[in-house]
Amino acid sequence: MELESILKQIRPDDNQCNCLSGIVSKLGEVLKNQSGILKIKKVVPAGSFGRDTILKGHLEVDCVYILEHNGYSFYNNFSEVKRCLLNLPNSSQFEINNRSISFNLEKPIGTVSVDLFAAYEINSPEQMAAVKDRDFYYGSTSLLQNKYFKNVIKEYPFYKDLVRLIKLWRNTWNIPLTSYMIELIVSHALHRTKGQPDFSFYLEACFRNIQSFTDGSPIIPVFWMKLDDSKITAVYSPENLFIVDLSDLSENIAIKITKEEKDYIRSEASAATSYLHDNNYSFLYE
What we know:
The chain is of the alpha+beta class. It has 2 domains: about 10-120, Beta Polymerase, domain 2 (2-Layer Sandwich), CATH 3.30.460; about 150-285, Poly(a)-polymerase, middle domain, CATH 1.10.1410.10. About 45% of the residues lie in helices and about 15% in strands. Strands 1-2-5-4-3 form a 5-stranded mixed β-sheet. Helix 7 packs across helix 8. The chain is globular. The termini are close together.
């Protein structure tokens, strides 16, 4: 199967996108209009849907609601949010933790999982590093991430398709990389291969970048944020894989990847490059 045929099968269709966008809009409407306690500035999509790298049929949407500093306890607002959300038709299975509320919505396209994060707004990774209670700002890091990837997409319009293909490979082979890690790895690969001729070359560059990463090469995603390395406080160690969180420069989000997982990721990435040399793309989905 050719790459374009694979991409047509994994890009989200209008029905899916409209449904998830409608959920985000509805959440904003409910939270702004049905509570006199909550002071909501805005509700925005986050995660893969917010960055437009979601796969077809992935019925999940992350949202962030940005609170005003009005003196009402950050943690106590979740019970008020849940009270408002109980008015949503076909909602169920509410769960609350210290950062978010998760629940399901039954929609014509299927059961959609929703994660709703609360946050106060921040403007930079440096501000995030300075705050005492990061849970207060955890959700708003998604806004910084969205801004970063918007700039990547502007420079590389095919970035989203590359991410989707790597996610497809991840899902097929149970590769222990999160979607956020994949997005950072792909943006890093693109930065290192500017000016190359075609899409298939960039796809191979992504897998080679994964190989380099598992050999100890750090992923430092600061190229479009105009940050210098001196602002990174995450500590590099050759014993651990290393991806700097672009919205929290003190965090290495790959530190929990084990040696066994690292070896598996590298083995499958190496196999992928061999398949690509033969123009064989079936490894992506079977």
